[in-house]
Amino acid sequence: VAGLGNYGLRGTRHSVGMEVLDQLARQLAVAEGWRVDKRCCADVALATAHGLELVLLKPRRFMNLNGLSVASAAELYSLGPGDIYLVHDDLDKALGKVAIKLGGSARGHNGVQSCISALQSNEMTRLRIGIGRP
């Protein structure tokens, strides 16, 4: 599960994917387990939920390069594009609205496009978090 955003610009609507991952880590009782993994240039926490082993990932790159971290982690943990969930902001959804998208285009989102390019696939599931238009 990758929370897309601009590392270092926390608290902005554009980095809501990372905020969601922080909340998920708290709910799964692994919030203290975040560690820097230089192999994929990301903060990583491992968790278990409903019998599934999860890799929580917050890339330490700007949004348009998040895919490099996601692809590196996918290789490290032997994950295919269909195993990956991207959590990211969506300008076209009202603030706080959430939707799941299975594969398809990036719809103009640079972080998602970076992941599609780096993984050479668009099969990732996306959790789109509405941030509304300014």
Structure explained in plain terms:
There is one protein chain. The model has no long low-confidence stretch (mean pLDDT 95). The chain has helices at residues 16-27, 66-76, 110-119, and strands spanning 2-3, 35-37, 42-49, 52-59, 85-90, 98-102, 125-130. Helices cover 25% and strands 28% of the residues. Helix 2 (66-76) packs parallel to helix 3. The protein contains three helices and seven strands; from the N terminus they run βαβββαββαβ. The radius of gyration is 13 Å and the shape is globular. The protein has 134 residues and is an alpha/beta fold. It has a single domain (2-130), classed as Rossmann fold. A four-stranded mixed sheet has the order 1-5-7-6. Strands 2-3-4 form a three-stranded antiparallel sheet.
At a glance:
The chain is α/β, with parallel strands linked by helices and 134 residues long. Helices cover 25% and strands 28% of the residues.
Give, in spatial order, the strands making up the sheet with the most strands. Answer: 1-5-7-6
Counting DSSP E segments of at least 2 residues, the number of strands comes to 7
Number of domains: 1
Kindly provide the name of the CATH class: Alpha Beta
Helical segment tally?
3
* Helix percent band: 10-25%
Walk me through the topology.
Blueprint: E1 2-3, H1 16-27, E2 35-37, E3 42-49, E4 52-59, H2 66-76, E5 85-90, E6 98-102, H3 110-119, E7 125-130
Parallel strand pairs: 1-5, 5-7
Antiparallel strand pairs: 2-3, 3-4, 6-7
